[in-house]
Design a protein that fits this description.
The chain has 346 residues and is of the alpha/beta class. The protein folds into 3 domains: 31 residues; 195 residues, 3-Layer(aba) Sandwich (D-Maltodextrin-Binding Protein, domain 2); 97 residues, Periplasmic binding protein-like II (D-Maltodextrin-Binding Protein, domain 2, 3-Layer(aba) Sandwich). Helices cover 41% and strands 17% of the residues. The chain has 13 helices and 10 strands. A 5-stranded mixed sheet has the order 7-6-8-5-9. Strands 3-10-4 form a 3-stranded antiparallel sheet. The protein is globular.
């Protein structure tokens, strides 16, 4: 009997040891898994309007990159395509315009979207506003002359399309009074020069200040004429991703803010021009006079979203019939992550 008890105890000890070993393996595996950097993908349409591809060109500014997160900037033709990618899980962050954000909620059904940061504003006092340009020697002298004409926007449903609709509506022209053609920003000047369209949307300063466009075109109106100031592009993400990965997202925002401070510092202007020139292949002399200056879009230094301006912009879209209902913007804002990153400092 004693011998049986001893054997039972030995077997129990072996089983306990095996169980503890298995738990240790699970714990080690779990810890290793928890340490894996969070994958972050962010959309962009045009550089340097959208900063994601430029953020970590100076790798020493990204102190958390590769440790708590990885980062990839993914290009799309327009923000509506980024909405689709966000819905399918192919993006963690989408840079959306004031016009595509409400559509993402109302049409794509993503009521869990949260505005986490601002990218840039159009038409802020003393800064650039997207321009709508006609041929200097053409027949278009006033907005009413666009009736029956063909107008180029980079993508239907985007910010430039929204500005065209709003401004022309003020001048008695509805959607059926003109034709809309989608043209990428780099090809705008060519279609205007070849008279394939009667008006182009120059949504980015690098194309507006191109000497070749300046020689043939003149501004008929700007986005500011249509809407006043606009919170043009915002960073959005789905709430589930933010809740699950809060610490890594704050680390990312801290690095993002460090990069933004570098680019916006006038002392770094020449280096910033070179980085953007190397990436875009735009000659430095075509960037130097405007890049990250008052001739560029305004960017809030700490990337805080301008909620009141965005609310006004969305209300304007609703009144113009561009969206089926307005939104209470503050319900979709979570600025706590960018605020935490700002508090950490450099």
């Amino acid at each position: 009997m004693v011998q049986f008890i001893r054997k039972a105890r030995a077997v129990s000890c072996k089983l306990l040891a095996a169980g503890l070993a298995a738990l240790a393996v699970v714990a080690i595996t779990g810890a290793a898994s928890a340490q894996q950097p969070v994958r972050i993908r962010a959309s962009w349409v045009a550089v340097p309007n959208n900063l994601p591809p430029l953020l970590f060109q100076k790798k020493e500014l990204a102190k958390n990159l590769g440790k708590t997160y990885t980062f990839e900037a993914v290009q799309y033709r327009g923000t509506p395509q980024a909405v689709t990618a966000l819905a399918t899980g192919d993006l963690e962050f989408a840079l959306l315009t004031y016009s595509s954000f409400p559509l993402a909620i109302q049409n794509a059904g993503m009521s869990d979207l949260r505005i986490v940061a601002g990218e840039f504003q159009d038409g802020a006092d003393g800064y650039y506003s997207a321009s709508f340009v006609v041929n200097k020697d053409g027949p278009i002298k006033k907005p009413e002359d666009l009736k029956g004409k063909t107008l180029a926007v980079n993508v239907k449903g985007g910010a430039t399309h929204g500005a065209v609709r709003e401004y022309l509506l003020k001048h008695g022209l509805g959607d059926s009074d003109y034709n809309i053609l989608e043209v990428s920003f780099p090809n705008m000047r060519a279609v205007l020069a070849e008279k394939k369209v009667d008006l182009i949307s120059v949504g980015t300063p690098q194309f507006m200040w191109d000497p070749a466009l300046q020689s043939i075109g003149r501004t008929l109106f700007t986005q500011k004429d249509a809407f006043g100031k606009t919170e043009n592009v915002i960073w959005v993400a789905r709430s589930g991703f933010l809740e699950k990965n809060r610490a890594a997202v704050v680390d990312f925002f801290q690095d993002m803010l460090r990069a933004r401070r570098f680019y916006f510092d006038k002392a770094n202007h020449q280096e910033a021009v070179k980085i953007v020139s190397d990436f875009t292949k735009i000659a430095p002399e075509n960037l130097d006079a405007w890049l990250f200056t008052e001739r560029d879009f305004y960017r809030e230094p700490n990337a805080y979203p301008d909620v009141s301006t965005l609310q006004k912009n969305i209300d304007q879209l609703y009144k113009a019939g561009a969206i089926k209902q307005s939104l209470e913007v503050k319900k979709y804002v979570d600025a706590s992550l960018i605020e935490e990153a700002v508090k950490r400092g450099p």
